[in-house]
Amino acid sequence: MRSLIDIKELSLEEIDSLVNCALDIIENPAKYSEKCKGKKLATLFFEPSTRTRLSFEAAMYELGGNVLGFSEASSSSSAKGESVADTARMISCYADIIAMRHPKEGAPLVAAMNATIPVVNAGDGGHNHPTQTLADLLTIKRKKGRFDNLTIGLCGDLKFGRTVHSLIGAMSRYKNIKFVLISPVELKIPDYVKTEVLDKNGIEYVETTDLQGAMAELDVLYMTRVQKERFFNEEDYLRLKDSYILDLPKLQNAKSDLSIMHPLPRVNEISVKVDTDPRAHYFEQALNGKYMRMALILMLLGIK
Ligand code: NCD
């Protein structure tokens, strides 16, 4: 029995095989439409979500399985004081696999330690979001055709942005990767990501506040939302929320094959005028998330 809490738990071979499985699902959806017949996915979402929860649910339905769960903490027994450990133990009686999102860092890990079925971390606080990274990886594969020799710009809230932390964790294992970390000084990447991931893997990176200055060298530009819900005071959020707004003039000196990504939801950080630029890949990225979640469900349930 295996869970997915942190993207680093997957070997590069396993990532390749998930990507290949997702590509096969895209080509031959009918082949997969009954693979999870009789299986149930429980979506336990203690925090808001649109894409992650619904793409997990769509993934299970497209595999022929069923879904149960809740989409807010207030409608579950956690509102009565039940622990994550007890909830996970209980849900193990009703479902075959759990996808859990929680505002507390480490909650899905606690669930995995107490469940008797696989638990997938669907986002834990400002920490990690491994299945978003799977969506990002499939997007990079389909758009760039490779995982090595890339200069990746990560822009926005690098402090609280859990998608950024997981994506760095994944991409740091490929060859000749360079990161350009673009953020306001207050929202720089946490030190633990620098020491435990970037420095440990000998990854080249620069930190800057200047999106425009970095643009020309980027192969991928990963924009992020300033994570309002993680701020301690509203004043700081209001001051920082519009630090970066990607619009068409800012893309003037970008590469013609730049891939513009964003985990979504977007607030102001990408102008809607960019949406029709052929380099805008964020909506496809959300679709890719469904295919990768299908591949992951099959893998964790041990279905060939
Ligand atoms: C992200 C998240 O929840 O961390 N959303 C998502 O799952 N696609 C990004 C965000 O909320 O800004």
CATH H-level homologous superfamily name of the largest domain: Aspartate/ornithine carbamoyltransferase
Radius of gyration: 19 Å
Strand order of the largest sheet: 7-6-5-8-9
**If you consult CATH, what is the topology of the largest domain?**
Rossmann fold
Give the distinct bound molecules.
Answer: N-carbamoyl-L-aspartate
Elements, N to C (H/E)? HEHEHEHEHEHEHEHEHEH
Could you say how many structural domains there are in total?
2
As a percent range, the share of helical residues equals 25-40%
Distance between the ends: 15 Å
Average residue-wise pLDDT: 97
Estimated structural class? alpha/beta
Q: What would CATH call the architecture of the largest domain?
A: 3-Layer(aba) Sandwich
